[in-house]
């Protein structure tokens, strides 16, 4: 519904216009104010789409009111009522787009016509396909999906401001990691017209693209399709709009409330898509994102009614504190990601976080504790099965909670099993690394006279050269090139102790084609030439 505010310091005019438009079937949500200041209060409280205002008023006049309208609701249409002697005012007003004017002496028919024209312009601007076409130029579907994956990554743990800065730059995210965010969550209403995942995903994408147009002028934002096919927006006031940060965020909340309401109308009219919006009025630090997101989803679940075209604003004080709002399945996926990636710290942090939610104040478990136990146990068992670790990590009792004497013992068993898997992985990685290094050492000893370049050695074990170099140094405590020199030197000394080979032949056998190169290498290492060394060892 389009919202219109009538403003005039003469009550008879304000009330008269209000009565006229109340009787018309224009589907308008009408409000009235008797001064510019009172009108501004309305605009700071709710979205306004059309303002019908006197241009000359005591205190805040129409032009000052118009400037405030533009900063709060840029899409708003302004119709000024003027007197014959208001040319200077009118001239300034008509320089601004979306502004028209009428003489106060005009009949009601002309005023009604001006308002209906403004309604048509607003409805036209909400045409879905034109808006989507504009916003598609700013954001691609692939970028949207990548940013959605990154959002799920953000929910798994805290990133430093510096890390966020790099990530945002690489992913084209126009948010400041040093500032807090406002979070809005949309629950897409499922309808019979969406028979497949692709159709549902396309509908969510369309709403997201539409939001880019509605929110662009006043905010920096990231819109994401979450794990459930719903939408999440992370929002900051556009940089430099308001000096006071608290005021900027408060005004942005009001802006979001109004714009999301318009979006719902546009989506419903064009596609039959409806969605419920929950906005958190309190700012959220990046490290709080996972908790706030969980709590807002819980708030949506417990909403009143079906939520169709609902816009609700909540504060941290009113959001429910249920710690289990995000499903165990999603948290189990995070545990599995940590387990697969060998991230012991991340796994144990989430494990301990879940443990805090499993028991009551007396340490007793209930249905959630049981579900949580088997969710984690299944995650561990799946990992053991996939990597065939049954003979290395025992699974007896893993899927039998009642075999443990207490809840604490059962969860301690899960934790120890996870620790064993991480230790085993670390041991396997070290053993494989040791096997690779041993293979390289053996190859070097057997091919001292051949090409022992880093590229050649890397091809032997099918690693990239830089990784082999780093791995060798990490495992051996010495650079690969230094190790090759040591092996060459040791073999050269052994061969020089014997008389079967000439010095040049010794050099070739340890990888130096010219006598000069071999002599230089040998003298650098021993401070003597190969001939001097042979002479000394003969004595």
Automatic annotation (TrEMBL):
SUPFAM superfamilies hit by this protein: CheY-like, Homeodomain-like
Gene Ontology terms, MF aspect: DNA-binding transcription factor activity; sequence-specific DNA binding
4-aspartylphosphate: modified positions: 54
Short name of any one Pfam family annotated for the protein: Response_reg
Superkingdom per UniProt: Bacteria
UniProt-listed CDD domains: REC_YesN-like
Keywords, ordered alphabetically: DNA-binding, Phosphoprotein, Transcription, Transcription regulation
Domain HTH araC/xylS-type: 438-536
Entry keyword annotation includes Cytoplasm: no
InterPro entries xrefs: CheY-like_superfamily, Homeodomain-like_sf, HTH_AraC, HTH_AraC-typ_CS, Sig_transdc_resp-reg_receiver, Tscrpt_reg_AraC-type_HTH
Residue span, Response regulatory domain: 3-119
An annotated GO BP: phosphorelay signal transduction system
Entries under PANTHER family matching the protein: ARAC-FAMILY TRANSCRIPTIONAL REGULATOR (PTHR43280), HTH-TYPE TRANSCRIPTIONAL ACTIVATOR RHAS (PTHR43280:SF28)
Name of the molecule in the record: Response regulator
Organism, as annotated: Paenibacillus silvestris
Taxonomic lineage of the native organism: Bacteria, Bacillati, Bacillota, Bacilli, Bacillales
């Amino acid at each position: 519904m389009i919202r219109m505010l009538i403003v005039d310091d003469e009550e008879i005019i304000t009330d008269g216009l209000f009565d006229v438009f109340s009787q018309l079937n224009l589907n308008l949500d009408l409000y009235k104010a008797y001064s510019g200041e009172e009108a501004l209060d309305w605009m700071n409280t709710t979205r306004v789409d059309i303002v019908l205002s006197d241009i000359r008023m005591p205190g805040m006049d129409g032009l000052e009111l118009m400037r405030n309208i533009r900063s709060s609701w840029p899409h708003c249409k302004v119709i000024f009522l003027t007197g014959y002697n208001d040319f200077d005012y009118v001239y300034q007003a008509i320089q601004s787009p979306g502004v028209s004017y009428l003489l106060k002496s005009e009949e009601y028919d002309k005023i009604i016509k001006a308002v209906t024209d403004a309604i048509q312009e607003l409805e036209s601007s909400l045409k879905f396909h034109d808006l989507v076409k504009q916003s598609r130029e700013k954001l691609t579907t692939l970028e949207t999906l990548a940013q959605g994956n990154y959002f799920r990554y953000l929910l798994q743990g805290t990133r430093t401001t510096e890390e966020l800065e790099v990530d945002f730059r690489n992913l084209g995210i126009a948010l400041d990691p040093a500032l807090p965010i406002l979070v809005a969550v949309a629950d897409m209403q499922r309808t019979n017209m969406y028979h497949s995942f692709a159709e549902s995903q396309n509908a969510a994408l369309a709403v997201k693209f539409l939001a880019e147009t509605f929110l662009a002028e006043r905010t920096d934002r990231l819109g994401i399709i979450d794990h459930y096919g719903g939408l999440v927006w992370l929002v900051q006031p556009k940089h430099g709009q308001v000096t006071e940060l608290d005021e900027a965020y408060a005004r942005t909340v009001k802006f979001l409330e109004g714009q999301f309401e318009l979006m719902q109308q546009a989506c419903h009219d064009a596609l039959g898509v409806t969605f419920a919006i929950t906005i958190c009025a309190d700012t959220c630090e990046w490290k709080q994102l996972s908790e706030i997101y969980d709590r807002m989803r819980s708030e949506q679940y417990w909403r009143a009614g079906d939520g169709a075209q609902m816009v609700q604003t909540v504060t941290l004080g009113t959001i429910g504190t249920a710690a289990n709002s995000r499903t165990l399945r999603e948290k189990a996926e995070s545990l599995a990601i940590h387990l697969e990636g060998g991230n012991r710290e991340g796994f144990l942090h989430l494990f301990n976080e879940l443990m805090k939610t499993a028991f009551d104040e007396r340490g007793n478990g209930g249905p959630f504790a049981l579900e949580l136990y088997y969710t984690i146990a299944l995650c561990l068992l799946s990992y053991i099965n996939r990597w065939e670790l049954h003979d290395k990590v025992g699974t007896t009792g893993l899927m039998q909670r009642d075999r443990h004497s207490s809840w604490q013992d059962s969860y301690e068993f899960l934790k120890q099993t996870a620790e064993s898997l991480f230790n085993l992985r670390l041991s396997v990685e070290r053993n494989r690394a040791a096997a690779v290094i041993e293979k390289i050492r053996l190859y070097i000893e057997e091919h001292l006279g051949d090409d022992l370049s880093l590229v050649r050695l890397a091809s032997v074990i099918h690693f990239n050269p830089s990784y082999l170099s780093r791995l060798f140094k990490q495992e051996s405590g010495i650079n690969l090139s230094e190790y090759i020199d040591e092996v060459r030197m040791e073999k050269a000394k052994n061969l020089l102790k014997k008389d079967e080979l000439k010095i040049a032949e010794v050099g070739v056998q340890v990888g130096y084609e010219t006598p000069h190169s071999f002599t230089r290498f040998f003298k650098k290492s021993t401070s003597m030439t190969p001939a001097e060394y042979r002479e000394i060892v003969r004595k």
